[in-house]
Amino acid sequence: MEFTLLAAAMLGVAAAVGWLAVMHHGDAELRASTRDLIVIGALAGIVTGRIWAMIAGGTNPITHPVDVFMVRGGVDPFAASLAAVAAAGWSGRHEGWTLIDAAAPGAVMGLAGWHAGCLVRNACLGSTTELPWGWATTPGTAARHPVELYAAALLVLVALAVTALWRRGTGGGLATTVAVASAAGVRAVTEPLRPVLGEGRTLGYAIAAVTAAGFAGVLWWRKPTADS
Amino acid sequence: MNRRRAVAMVAATMLLFSSCGSASTPLDAVAEIPPITPATLRSRLAASPQPVVVNVWASWCSPCRSEAPLLRAAASEWGERVVFIGIDVRDTQRGGRGFIGEFGLTALEHGFDPSGAVPADLGGIGVPLTYFFYAGGELAHLHRGVIDERTLALWLDMIAG
Question: Are the C-beta atoms of B34 and B112 separated by less than 8 Å?
Fold first, then answer.
């Protein structure tokens, strides 16, 4: 039995919860609420993404319910993302955008932690490269991009930017939509460097990034100004 | 949302799920799995001009079920450059053929090893196991447990890219 995937997931949760603790250190109630929101979103995303991947792979989740727990067999990222956002939105519906916006930077930092967890899983490498920072798995083999660390680094920058946006008190869903657009953008940029079976998911991530950026643009344009 | 509507949605979802997945090849259409020994596999590996992926599986192994669709996709995509061999261990012929049929793993060669001698000879314990061999039979990597898409794609690229 291999527990490296669980260790990487725990690193992601630790990064998210840790960042929320830093962000909301003076407000224990907000800290707990945002943490719960992220955990609910993550669980909903993993379960839905796994079930969707099972169906796509030809396994019936009703007749083989145990397979849902075999997360390593695949989690569909699009179904998982939609379910995570929907579950978080549903859970935080009574607070409007306030709670979801307050959780968004932590969610992005959690994603960064998940990608950095490739170090635990020994799964950081992507396509071959001649750049000096390329890694080789064994001596004599071609160096490869540490693509998951690129993603982790970019997501940390996104989390810092979204935190700054949230601290400016823009509210109204702007921090959330910017976080979704940026996270999808990071995946779209790094996806071509990842080893995949089939066509890859670059186009899907790019569409998600552009769509979320469009929503963010609308929210930015409609946000109330100081003199209104 | 009221309770009745929620129950109706869950029932509709379950109906949808129950119509998804299932055998892609009838059992009768899956041939008997030929027996394989450590010696025959080693000679097959040594003589192979192409890289080889050896996956050790069993029909009673739940983790094997979750990685089977990945192996089917990999064999479909890389089958012209890489040889895929499945070793069905500690299993019955009927169980093994049913597994191959259910997941449509007909693009892989399969060997039947009821004693589990092949993975023992290759230094592996348990199922599933996935071995990646360079052309000529040199072992590049042994992955223990369920393999994920990234790891499978990375090592395919390593041995055949």
Answer: yes
Tokens read off for A16? 């998210």
Q: What share of chain A is helix, strand, coil (3-state, %, to 5)?
A: 70, 0, 30
> By residue range, what is the domain housing residue B107?
23-160
Chain B residue with minimal CA distance to A142? B158
A→B interface, C-beta within 8 Å: 1-2, 5, 51, 54-64, 66-67, 70, 72-74, 123, 125-128, 137, 141, 194-198
Is residue B149 situated within a structural domain? yes
What tens digit of pLDDT does each residue of A76-120 get? 999 999 999 999 999 998 888 899 999 999 999 999 999 999 999
The answer to whether A74 contacts B157, with C-beta atoms less than 8 Å apart, is no
Residues A195-205 pLDDT 10s: 999 888 999 99
Q: Does residue B18 form part of some domain?
A: no
Name the amino acid, one letter, at A142.
A
Question: For chain A, what is the domain count?
Answer: 1
Contact pairs from chain A to chain B, CB under 8 Å = 103
B158 and A141 within 8 Å at the Cβ level: the answer is yes
